[in-house]
Design goal:
This protein has 342 residues and is α/β, with parallel strands linked by helices. It has two domains: 277 residues, no CATH class; 39 residues, no CATH class. β4 and β5 form a beta hairpin. It is built from twelve helices and eleven strands. α4 packs antiparallel against α5 and α6 runs parallel beside α7.
Length: 342
C-alpha cells in the first residue's frame, strides 16, 4: 500500500531557518537534558505511571533500596533492626531492603516517512525524536546503561547499551541525522517492517532491559507478534504509539491532495466509503496493540503530535495534572482514551 503524507500547511522553511515543528536537530535534542533529568524511570513509580508495577525482581542489582519497616522475625539479621522505631513502639522492628535494579534501557525511535506527518502542532517524527531524547537523558541521570535503535526506511542504526554520556550523544546524533533526512520529496522506499525492528531489539536486549518503542506501527509484519512475545518474556516492554490529531479525530469535511512522492490521490472524508476505509485501518491497528497488551502484559504509552512532548511524558509517568485521565498502568481504558491510532 502506498504511504501518503500531507505537506505541512505552515512552518516549512529553508535549512537556514528550520522550523522545529517539522525537523529537529542535535542541538535541540541535546537541549532537552534538563527535562529528562526531572523524570524517573526507576522501579518505584507513581500509581498513575504506565511503568507502575513493572521491573521484576529478576533484574540484577547494584545496591540496596529501602522498602519498608516491619516487625522483627527470628530469621532477620539483627543488623537491620531500626532501634529508633523499636524504642518508640516498644516492639522490635527491622528495615527491609530490596535489590536496586541495574536496568539497561533500549529506546527505539521510528523515523520512517510514515512518521513525517503532522496536522496541528508538530510532525510525528519530531514528537518521537523529542520523547526519545528526554527518555535517554532520564536513563543517563539514573546512571543506567542506555542503548538505542533509530529506524528509517533504508536503514536500522543500532547503538549498544552503555553507561556514558558519549553513548547518549552518539545516539542523539544518529537520531537527528535521520530526522533531518525526512522531506516531502524523498523517494518512496519500501517501508521498514516491525519484524526487522524487533529482530534488532532482540540482538541488543536479550533480557532484563526496559524497551521503549516510539512508532506509529505503520507496517506490522507476519512475525511481529511472535518476536514481541519472546521479547516480553525477558524484558519490560513499553509501546508508545505516536499519533496525529487528524487521525485521532477524523473531520468529516476534509478535502486534501496527498502524495507519496510519485503518486497523488484526493483524500475526501466527505465520502462515507473513504471515511469507513480510514476508520477500519485505525481500528485494526489499535486493536492489534491492545491485543498484544492483553496477551503479553506490556504497557502502552500513547503520544500525540498535537501537543508538546514533555508534558505528555510527565503525565504518562504520573507526574502531571490529569495523568489519571491520560494514562494508567498500561490499561486498555487509558489507551482508548488517548486514541491508539495511526
Amino acid at each position: 500500500m502506498p504511504r501518503f503524507s500531507i505537506r505541512p500547511r505552515a512552518g516549512v522553511t529553508t535549512d537556514g531557518d528550520r522550523d522545529p515543528r517539522v525537523h529537529t536537530d542535535f542541538a535541540h535534542l541535546r537541549g532537552l537534558e534538563s527535562i529528562g533529568r526531572t523524570l524517573s524511570l526507576l522501579p518505584r513509580q507513581p500509581a498513575r505511571s504506565v511503568l507502575n508495577g513493572r521491573h521484576g525482581s529478576r533484574l540484577r542489582g547494584r545496591g540496596l533500596d529501602f522498602l519498608e519497616l516491619r516487625g522483627y522475625l527470628p530469621s532477620d539479621d539483627v543488623r537491620n533492626i531500626d532501634w529508633r522505631v523499636t524504642a518508640r513502639t516498644g516492639e522490635p522492628h527491622v528495615r527491609v531492603f530490596t535489590e536496586e535494579r541495574d536496568r539497561p534501557a533500549l529506546v527505539v525511535v521510528d523515523q520512517r516517512m510514515s512518521m513525517f506527518f503532522g496536522s496541528r502542532y508538530a510532525m510525528k517524527s519530531v514528537t518521537a525524536a523529542e520523547a526519545a531524547a528526554i527518555l535517554a537523558f532520564a536513563v543517563l541521570a539514573q546512571r543506567d546503561r542506555l542503548g538505542g535503535i533509530v529506524v528509517s526506511d533504508h536503514a536500522i542504526q543500532e547503538f549498544r547499551p552503555a553507561n556514558s554520556r558519549a553513548s547518549v550523544m552518539r545516539f542523539l546524533h544518529g537520531l537527528a541525522d535521520a530526522n533531518l533526512a525526512l522531506h516531502a520529496a524523498a523517494e518512496a522506499d519500501a517501508p521498514t517492517s516491525l519484524d526487522a525492528v524487533l529482530e534488532a531489539v532482540a540482538r541488543l536486549a536479550s533480557r532484563d532491559h526496559l524497551v521503549v518503542v516510539l512508532s506509529d506501527f505503520d507496517v506490522i509484519g507476519p512475525r511481529s507478534e511472535r518476536l514481541l512475545s519472546a521479547l516480553c518474556r525477558h524484558n519490560d516492554v513499553v509501546l508508545a504509539p505516536v499519533t496525529d490529531v487528524l487521525a485521532e479525530r477524523l473531520p468529516d469535511d476534509l478535502r486534501q491532495t496527498v502524495s507519496d512522492g510519485k503518486l497523488q490521490a484526493l483524500l475526501d472524508t466527505r465520502s462515507a466509503r473513504v471515511r469507513e476505509a480510514l476508520e477500519q485501518v485505525s481500528h485494526a491497528r489499535r486493536e492489534t496493540l491492545l491485543g498484544w497488551q492483553r496477551r503479553y502484559g506490556l504497557s502502552i504509552a500513547p503520544l500525540s503530535s498535537g501537543e508538546e512532548t514533555a508534558p505528555q511524558l510527565r503525565r504518562l509517568l504520573g507526574m502531571g495534572r490529569g495523568s489519571g485521565r491520560r494514562a494508567g498502568r498500561g490499561t486498555e481504558r487509558g489507551a482508548h482514551e488517548r486514541g491508539v491510532q495511526p
